[in-house]
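pls read this protein:
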Amino acid sequence: MADYLLLKTVHILSSTLLFGTGLGTAFHSWMANRSGNAGARRVVNRNVVLADWLFTTPAVIVQPVTGVWLAQLAGFPLTTGWLAASIALYLIVGACWLPVVGIQIRMRRIADATPAEMPLPAHYFQLSRMWFLLGWPAFIGVIVIFWLMVTKPEFGW
């Protein structure tokens, strides 16, 4: 039982880190881009990429490992409705997140390469819009996963 509770704690902390880092970096990036301040954009883009490597990436790895392990310890088949839905949503969230990582890196490179006195090129703002649009399904997906994990609803399929 102690192993299960420790594993569950790691899983919850990891999910919190994943959600919190995503929300925090999204807020700071959005605000920096709205500010019109090239220096702020440069610093925030660097920090968003760094935060993804330091916090998001490990949490993305820890989540499925601890989740499958918890399901096995608790005796839930991975085909259980709420669990299967959570796994499917996690894959959808990941399908949004992977391109976002590439977009963030490209935005950082553009911001770093643009002299402070020059405006950022239009391509930067196109990437910013794609980043923003991909963030919404990921954000909503994570909220639904939290709901599924907490409520464990029974599905009739």
